[in-house]
Design a protein that fits this description.
The chain is α+β, with helices and mostly antiparallel strands. It has 3 helices and 8 strands.
Length: 139
């Protein structure tokens, strides 16, 4: 650390270079601390935060790429698959089937419905979650 020792009128009258300073060793008067590494540490913090955000995105990529329509039922041209445990699984199965354009998952009976047509209609009901084939981009 580099300290510039100031008098009461803020005039510098000496410098002290020391690696460690205990609070009881700080001289009287105002002290201006020059932090040579401040910019470097700021950049490192930003890099670490960006890295953490990127890793979080990679770990949760399948969910982040898909924002389904909650409480919405798509219907028209249905094909049913039973025992699908989540809307994410339903959406992934749809994205892996070239014929599937849209999907709907029913919470109560764990059923997944594929729509093979671009002409879907919507109804609104709290037990449905729906999305498009491209929701997971083939993940």
């Amino acid at each position: 650390a580099h300290f510039t020792i100031m008098d009461k009128e803020n005039r510098g009258y000496g410098s002290v270079h020391t690696p460690l300073v205990r609070p009881d060793e700080v001289p009287n008067g105002n002290i201006r601390i020059t932090k040579k590494w401040f910019g470097f540490f700021c950049v490192m913090i930003v890099v670490l935060l960006c890295g953490a955000i990127f890793v979080t995105f990679l770990l949760t990529e399948n969910t982040l790429l898909c924002t389904p329509e909650y409480d919405t039922n798509y219907y028209g041209g249905d094909f049913n698959i039973d025992n699908i445990s989540s809307w994410e699984d339903c959406g992934r199965k749809c994205s892996s089937d070239q014929r599937c354009k849209f999907w709907t998952w029913i919470r109560g009976d764990l059923s997944c419905y594929f729509m093979f047509t671009n002409e879907v209609r919507r109804t609104y009901d709290g037990s449905y979650i729906s999305g498009s084939r491209t929701c997971f981009r083939g993940k």
